[in-house]
Specification:
Elements lengths: L6 E4 L3 H17 L8 E3 L15 E5 L8 H10 L6 E5 L3 H10 L5 E5 L2 H18 L3 H29 L5 H26 L4 H5 L7 H14 L12 H18 L1 E5 L2 E6 L2 E4 L2 H30 L1
Parallel strand pairs: 1-2, 1-3, 3-4, 4-5
Antiparallel strand pairs: 6-7, 7-8
Length: about 300
């Protein structure tokens, strides 16, 4: 699972789709996920062309106005070997939905009334279930590594764009800033290399070189502090670098931890560092990644627009 929580929806009443979509969006974003616009199908005519594997959840009105049966849609999905969680709803109530599904001998679907209160209660429970199924250490490690790698790429794009176009006239200053930081780091690495050669091979093989994520963070903070724009204000005075460094530290910890249970609690340990692995921790990490993704993309857009003017 990535940060996008993707939903396939079958609903032919636009007003109902829009109203319920807003409710579901709040649930998804509360868990720290991005909520892309759901793919809404008003009937089953395109069912053979849908890539069901990309969706985390299917939501369907049991009785579409054009006569298509939601249960028949589910039967077609099951025939394709797709076992994504499905929530069916109907204005005739939950018991009616269960009865209709029983006629088709379909298992593994959740039933809800069309009324918003019951609908969102059931959908929220199902979304939580789908998230918990993949919210183990390996999945969270994969999500965080993949998403923060994307953020590192955005930072590289911002830095390259500023250097290439001398955005806001700070290209030379940024160049000198990077040279100074990298030069200091290279000297430090050389000193360590000389000190550890023949003595501490573990220190040599465990050390990344030069312009790594930490250097990118410092460069982005320099850009933020050097450009006078309202978009930059919340991130100035080391706010971005401090906050992102905390995220990076947790990412780095996750890359090397072992999972242990102590007093009924799941903990992640690496050396003398540890953290408790909880649902709240997973939500916090997704929220932080999403926030930084939004901020960095906004900064990149600003840089590109500035360069084009």
């Amino acid at each position: 699972m990535r940060l996008d929580y993707k939903i396939l929806w079958f609903e032919d009443v636009e007003s109902s789709f829009n109203a319920k979509k807003r409710l579901v969006k709040r649930v998804v974003e509360k868990l720290g996920f991005i909520f892309p616009e759901p793919q809404n199908e008003v009937d089953a005519t395109s069912i053979d062309t849908i890539d069901f594997g990309v969706y985390d959840l299917i939501i369907a009105d049991l009785n579409l106005a054009n006569g298509a049966k939601g249960s028949a849609i589910l039967e077609s999905i099951r025939d394709k070997g797709v076992y994504t969680e499905v929530v069916f709803y109907s204005s005739e109530g939950e018991d009616y939905v269960r009865g209709e599904l029983a006629k088709f001998q379909i298992d593994g679907a959740y039933c809800a009334d069309r009324a918003n209160e019951d609908f969102i209660d059931k959908v929220e429970k199902v979304i939580n279930t789908t998230v918990k199924k993949v919210q183990d250490l390996n999945n969270m490690r994969g999500l965080i590594m993949a998403e923060t790698s994307d953020l590192d790429s955005i930072m590289s794009s911002i830095i390259s764009a500023v250097l290439e176009k001398n955005t806001a006239g700070i290209g030379d200053k940024l160049t000198e800033f990077i040279y100074q930081n990298v030069g200091s780091k290279v000297k430090e690495k050389k000193d360590k290399y000389d000190r550890y050669t023949g003595k501490r091979i573990d220190k040599i093989i465990g050390d990344n070189l030069m312009f790594d994520a930490s250097q990118k963070i410092l460069a982005i903070q320099f850009i933020i502090d050097s450009i006078d724009h309202e978009l930059m204000v919340p991130h100035k005075n080391n706010v971005f670098s401090s906050d992102y460094t905390v995220l990076k530290q947790k990412r780095d910890l996750l890359a090397h931890v072992i999972e242990v249970y102590e007093n009924g609690k799941k903990k992640l340990k690496s050396g003398n560092r540890e953290l408790e692995f909880t649902d709240e921790f997973c939500v916090e990490m997704r929220v932080k990644i999403k926030q930084h993704g939004i901020s960095l993309n906004q900064i990149l857009t600003l840089i590109v627009e500035t360069n084009n003017t």
